[in-house]
Amino acid sequence: MTVAAILKHKGCEVFTARPTDTIGEVARNLSAQRIGAVVVIDSVGQLLGTLSERDIVNALATNGAWALEMSVAQAMCRTLKTATLHTTTGEALAMMAAGHFRYLPVIDRGALIGLISIGDVVKNRIMQHEIEVDTLRAYVSGADYAVTSPIASWSGNGEDNDKASESYRVLASTMADASLD
């Protein structure tokens, strides 16, 4: 699966902040929107970094309550890795783990189009594995399918075959997407 699949599921809304905004303003926005990070951009939309809840906690631990009056530029993460729509979930997870960060901006043709979290990636990987397990269970239970067809043609009847057929369609589509990466 790719980052495109994650954004298709979760949406592409990205909350941003300016480097001159205060940490207090961003903290209130994070709370109101129930999100964990914002992307920091300049006046022309150039990506400058991210500011996450973790960055705010670190600023508070270092500077006390005064941190809420500090500018976003003083606490944001400037070391920025980005993903594209074609980045696989495995690649995204590896980048996040290696870089010790939880949020990854998504860029397409030079423009910011999304922000994914490590939670989004993990949730997507779990869904992917559940589909594979369901498909294998259906296969092992004796469901018959046409190997040459990209969409399964299941024998038998009932709801289990409908679920297995849908699982196979999703898995086949996922495998096709993965082979393009």
CATH superfamily of the largest domain: CBS-domain
Helix content class? 40-55%
* Uncertain parts: 146-161
- The number of distinct structural domains comes to 2
Shape: elongated
- As laid out across the biggest beta sheet, the strand order is 1-2-3
CATH topology label of the largest domain: CBS-domain
Strand residue percentage: 5-15%
Indicate the mean pLDDT.
83
Distance between the termini: 9 Å
- Biggest sheet overview: 3 strands, mixed
CATH architecture of the largest domain: Roll
The total of beta strands comes to 5
**What is the gyration radius calculated from CA atoms?**
21 Å
CATH class of the largest domain: Alpha Beta
Element order: H for helix, E for strand: HEHEEHHHEEHH
Helix-and-strand structural type: alpha+beta
DSSP helix count?
7
